[in-house]
Amino acid sequence: MTIRFGIITLSDRSSRGERDDASGPALASFLEAEGCLVLKRLILPDDESALRSTLTEWADDGGLDIILTTGSTGFAPRDIAPEATKAVIQKEAPGLAEVMRAESLKKTPHAMLSRAAAGIRARTLIVNLPGSPKGALENLGFIFPVLPHAVQLLKDDPASEQSH
Q1: Which alpha helices (H) appear in the chain, and where do they start and end?
Q2: Average pLDDT over residues 22-49
Q3: Which domain holds residue 113?
């Protein structure tokens, strides 16, 4: 099964062209090397309304299985990814965020400061990842093994029962 991804980088500076987006391309390279399709990529400022709108549009059009956001998950005043995600999802997927925090905590105590969220809108999984390329790739790596099964379940694929 080929999983279809969208990636949204959240960064005021990158959206203004003041800094290159390193996390979005790193995630795309990883996913493509794993045989996934990255169909959409976007850089947005740390703007909750813009992220809500984009997540809603991308999830509701049915063309993506998973949307990854990178950045805007911490304690800074403009960090809004979890709030925007929680505002648009219809079901939470707390286990994904819990695993990312737990595994990250083995590497850095700063993992306790992550507010990343994950959930489902329509048949699309939305996952918040850290903003650094290293953190984004590590966290995606922690959850990547279960993503094919998650997509099978979201698609109501009868083959998903064989994985239990």
Answers
A1: 12-15, 23-33, 48-60, 81-88, 94-105, 133-143, 147-154
A2: 98
A3: 4-157
